[in-house]
């Protein structure tokens, strides 16, 4: 279903600069959409047009099949449905306190004081900023301001959220936490639209991508399609995403299975083609013809490997104690991933799961989970790229626990199961404390 559409959309600034030149786009409801282009390509102008902040010089915009109107009543209605978060949060946050800033939108919608209070408290908890509610926004860090700005928009319950360069000025951990929040919003049905010049972000995150150059759409499609079009990338002045670039290089060297489209590090690892022959360390009693367990990562032979992934038949034993083995991929017995719902957090139950379940690695996703873990002195080993790193640890035979909550639970399950289905590797995955 198309939720937002433009037809021959044009916009010129008063000085005559043509910023948007006949753009035709159709955006599907519930999708994650990225507009990719260099600075000055028109991304910010296009976004201001999409939510009615700017009025087109030509063409039209349709929301749910109805053309945008520009009287005050219609604009108020459309801005409730299409929220926008600016690149610079200082352009958006203006109230004396964080609480008042988040309350501004719901109050303008005419909600009762009780409903506004409940909504603001919900947003404070959801975004992990309860401790900031009485503070002046201009005293906050860049990452905290970004959370407040997003909370103020989400408090109005929009159907579409537009974010202009959402990761600008954020540190890596803050960026990961923000993407966790956005993924959860999308899982609950919100259509997300971002602008970015970060091809790696667009490639791994988006369902659909538009390339914008000097106010014109020069290409669009699924990330795996548009980012393999080198001619299109050159026209857009963009590079290959790093995971795809690495994959192409190892594919050229005949080290990877061909025809793959790896978006993540686990995808890239799974694309690797194991060598046919390999030198390995062997115990003195090893005989030619024996089959050895070599482990998941094809590393040095381990006498007490706790998992089974690759076997090697000994073809020749050298006098230095090394042997040439012929590798065969055997059935994976990888580790497991347990997801713990932090909305049902109980310190004693978590301790029980960690100790009795033999958990080797703990990862935390989202501000709430990280805050609770810190408050209760839970040692967190992974705080960024949690799902991908948990998968990699599981492939090494480790038992991992992911601490998260809300919509990130089904999101995590979906991501892990997608990897299992693509790779054929049966990683055990479960929820520790289901409702």
Any overview of this molecule?
The strands form 4 sheets. A 6-stranded mixed beta sheet has the order 6-7-8-3-9-10, with helices on both faces. Strands 2-1-4-5 form a 4-stranded antiparallel beta sheet, with helices on one face. A 4-stranded antiparallel beta sheet has the order 11-14-13-12, with no helix packed on it. Helix content is 35%, strand content 24%. Helix 3 (98-108) packs across helix 4 (113-126), helix 3 (98-108) packs parallel to helix 5 (142-154) and helix 4 (113-126) crosses helix 5 (142-154). The protein is globular. The longest helix has 16 residues, at 172-187. The two termini are 32 Å apart. Mean pLDDT is 87; it is low at 297-308. A hairpin with a 4-residue loop joins strand 13 and strand 14. It is of the alpha/beta class and 435 residues long.
Sum this structure up briefly.
With 435 residues, the protein is of the alpha/beta class.
Write the layout of secondary structure elements.
Layout: E1 2-12, E2 18-28, E3 32-36, H1 43-50, E4 58-63, E5 66-67, H2 72-81, E6 82-85, H3 98-108, H4 113-126, H5 142-154, E7 160-164, H6 172-187, E8 191-196, H7 199-205, E9 208-213, E10 216-221, H8 223-226, H9 230-235, H10 242-252, H11 265-271, E11 277-281, E12 291-293, E13 310-317, E14 322-329, E15 336-341, H12 347-356, E16 361-364, H13 367-375, H14 386-395, E17 399-404, H15 408-423, E18 428-431
Parallel strand pairs: 3-8, 3-9, 6-7, 7-8, 15-17, 15-18, 16-17
Antiparallel strand pairs: 1-2, 1-4, 4-5, 9-10, 11-14, 12-13, 13-14
Helix pairs in contact: 3-4, 3-5, 4-5
């Amino acid at each position: 279903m198309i939720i937002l559409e433009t037809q021959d959309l044009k916009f010129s600034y008063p000085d005559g600069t043509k910023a948007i030149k006949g753009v035709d786009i159709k955006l599907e409801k519930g999708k994650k959409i990225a507009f990719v282009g260099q600075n000055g390509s028109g991304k910010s102008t296009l976004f201001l047009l999409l939510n009615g902040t700017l009025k087109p010089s030509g063409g039209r915009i349709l929301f749910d099949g109805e053309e945008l109107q520009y009287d005050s009543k219609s604009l108020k209605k459309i801005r409730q449905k299409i929220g926008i978060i600016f690149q610079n949060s200082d352009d958006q946050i203006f109230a004396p306190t964080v609480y008042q800033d988040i309350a501004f939108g719901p109050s303008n919608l005419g909600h009762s004081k009780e409903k506004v209070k409940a909504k603001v408290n919900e947003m404070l908890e959801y975004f992990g900023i309860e401790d900031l509610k009485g503070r002046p926004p201009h005293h906050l860090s860049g990452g905290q301001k970004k959370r407040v700005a997003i909370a103020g928009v989400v408090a109005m319950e929009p159907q579409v959220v537009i974010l202009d360069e959402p990761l600008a000025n954020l540190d890596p951990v803050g960026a990961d936490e923000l993407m966790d929040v956005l993924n959860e919003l999308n899982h609950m049905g919100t259509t997300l639209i971002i602008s970015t010049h970060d091809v790696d972000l667009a490639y791994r995150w988006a369902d659909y991508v538009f390339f914008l150059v000097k106010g014109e759409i020069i290409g669009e499609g699924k990330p795996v399609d548009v980012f393999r079009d080198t001619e299109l990338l050159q026209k857009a002045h963009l590079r290959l995403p790093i995971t795809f670039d690495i994959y192409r290089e190892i594919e050229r060297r005949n080290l990877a299975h061909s025809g793959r489209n790896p978006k993540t590090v686990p995808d890239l690892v799974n694309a690797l083609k194991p060598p046919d022959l390999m030198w390995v360390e062997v115990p003195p009693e090893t005989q030619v013809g024996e089959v050895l367990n070599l482990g998941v990562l094809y590393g040095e032979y381990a006498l007490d490997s706790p998992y089974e992934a690759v076997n090697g038949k000994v073809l020749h034993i050298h006098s230095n104690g090394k042997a040439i083995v012929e590798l065969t991929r055997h059935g994976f017995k990888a580790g497991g991933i347990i997801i713990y719902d932090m909305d049902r957090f109980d310190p004693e139950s978590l301790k029980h799961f960690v100790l009795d379940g033999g958990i080797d690695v703990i990862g935390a996703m989202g501000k709430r989970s990280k805050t609770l873990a810190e408050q209760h002195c839970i040692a967190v080993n992974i705080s960024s790229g949690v799902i991908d790193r948990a998968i990699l640890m599981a492939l090494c035979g480790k038992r991992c626990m992911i601490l998260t909550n809300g919509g990130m639970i089904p999101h995590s399950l979906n991501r892990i199961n997608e990897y299992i289905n693509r790779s054929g590797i049966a990683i055990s995955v479960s929820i520790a404390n289901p409702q």
